[in-house]
Structure formats: C-alpha cells, structure tokens
Design goal:
Blueprint (H helix, E strand, L loop, with lengths): L1 E8 L16 H13 L6 E2 L8 E10 L6 H11 L4 E9 L11 E10 L12 E3 L5 H9 L3 E4 L14 E12 L2 E8 L6 H13 L6 H9 L14 E7 L21
Parallel strand pairs: 3-10, 5-6
Antiparallel strand pairs: 1-3, 1-4, 2-3, 5-9, 5-10, 7-8, 8-9
Helix pairs in contact: 1-2, 3-4
Length: about 260
C-alpha cells in the first residue's frame, strides 16, 4: 500500500533533506525509523527537498510498503524512533497513483527576518537578520513585479538542476510587525535557492540600494550576477504543500489565511 505522511522539522539539526552517505539528513532519520516500524527497508519521496538549515511546518512524503500497520503506528511509533527535532504529524493511506511531489500543484514558503540593529541570539537558527532599516512599501512595490509566470534564471543557484527556469509565482506578501518581517511566497514550484534569492533582492530594495523597478530589471536580465546575494537559510520554512481536494490530504492548522486561496 502507499502511505502519505506529513512532517515538521527543525532544519538547523540536519544536513538538509536528501539522504547522504554519512547520514545526518531528515530523509535518513525518517527512513530509518519507518524501516524499523515496517520491518523492512522503506524509501520515502518528498514534496520538495529542503537545504541544510531550512525548516518545515508541512513537508509531505509518500512511501510504499507491504507491512500492514495501523495508521497510528506510522505516526506514534515512528515518532518514538525519530530525533526530537523532527515529528510525523499525520499518516494517510493513499491511492497508488498519489505522488507527494508530482501531485502537488503549489507550495508555500515563509521567510522570517529580524530587522533590528543587533543580531538575534534566541532566533539565531530560526530567522534571518538585517541590521539596516527597511523600506517596507518599496519592498512591496518590488515584490509586485515578481508575481506571475516568469523566467527566474536570475534568482536560481548555479547548482539548480531544474530543466526549465520558468515558474509561476502565485502570491508574494510582505508582512511587518515591529522588528519582525515575514515574506510569504507561493508558487507552483520553486528553483534551487529561489526564495532565499527573492528575499535577498527585496532586502536590497528595502535598504535603498536600488529602486523597486530594479527587481523587474533583474528578472528580465535572466542574469544571476545582477541580483543580490543569497540570504541565509535559517529564516526559511516550508509552510504548506497544496494538493487538489480530491486527494483528501489533511489540512494543517494555522494555515496562512491571508494568502489568497487557491481554486
């Protein structure tokens, strides 16, 4: 049978999502725990790989197994064998054609930034930081130029393996309250480092290094060298993976209600 799981994890405790020969990744920890519950080797496929230091509030995975276990065993039993920095939130039996990555039609990421003169200590692994005052209206004006279907070559890493740089940015919201600034980004899919590069670009505008129109110029150039440096991984969270209602994927509490709803 095919089982889907949702996870949350603290990315600062792992070397990223994807398995490595030396271990230390979220996938390594999860596969080890699931294999113990199943009594045989289990391989998981995720909705979207996260880099070292990137967190997840809702990562979705699927795996196939011939082991018959109550759904509760895939949650509580697996959690008993996982490090405290990662937890399974729910489990669901799925049709054989469900695929955690390819069935998803959008993903939402959130980037948390502290904008204050001194670096944060308590949030050092959980937020980015900018010491210079930020012009939020200017950043929002720049963000509006990035929404829609574009070639995002200027905002992807040199290591990106995606066949096409074209993505549809469905929503990009900037929220500010006190010293906290949040960037909430939803797209059909993301390129490697795309969100962190978006944040870097918008912070440059917010600091007054460039006018808002520069964001559109960078995008049109398709030249990574013309954009801002990649922002730190610490503030980035995979917030939600979106699926058609027909899949019956459980919806997370604390959904980002202010982002326009998907059809």
């Amino acid at each position: 049978m095919r089982i889907a799981l949702s996870l949350e994890y603290d990315g600062s405790r792992f070397l990223g999502w994807q398995t490595q020969p030396g271990g230390g990744t979220v996938q390594d920890a999860l596969q080890g725990a699931l294999s113990a519950i199943a009594g045989s080797a289990v391989h998981v496929t995720c909705a979207g790989r996260t880099d070292r230091g990137v967190h997840a509030r809702m990562q979705v995975v699927h795996f196939d197994t011939s082991a018959t276990r109550p759904l509760g065993a895939w949650v509580r039993g697996t959690n008993a064998l996982l490090p405290e920095s990662v937890a399974v939130l729910w489990a669901a039996e799925m049709p054989d054609d469900f695929h955690a990555r390819y069935a998803a039609h959008a993903r939402t990421y959130r980037y948390l930034l502290f904008n204050r003169a001194v670096r944060p200590a308590l949030a050092a692994h959980y937020a980015g930081w900018c010491h210079a005052p930020l012009d939020i209206p200017a950043m929002r004006a720049a963000a509006a130029l990035l929404v829609g279907e574009h070639d995002f070559s200027a905002l992807r890493s040199a290591e990106c393996q995606a066949k096409s740089p074209v993505r549809t940015l469905q929503a990009l919201e900037i929220r500010a309250e006190g010293e906290r600034v949040e960037f909430v980004v939803r797209a059909n899919a993301f390129l490697h480092h795309m969100v962190r590069n978006l944040v870097g670009l918008l912070v440059y505008v917010g600091r007054g290094k460039h006018a808002p129109a520069w964001a559109g110029e960078v995008l049109a150039s398709r030249d990574r060298a013309r954009a801002a440096p990649t922002f730190a991984a610490a503030g980035l969270y995979l917030e939600r993976v979106h699926y058609a209602a027909t899949w019956g994927i459980p919806q997370e509490a604390g959904e980002l209600r202010r982002v326009p709803a998907l059809p």
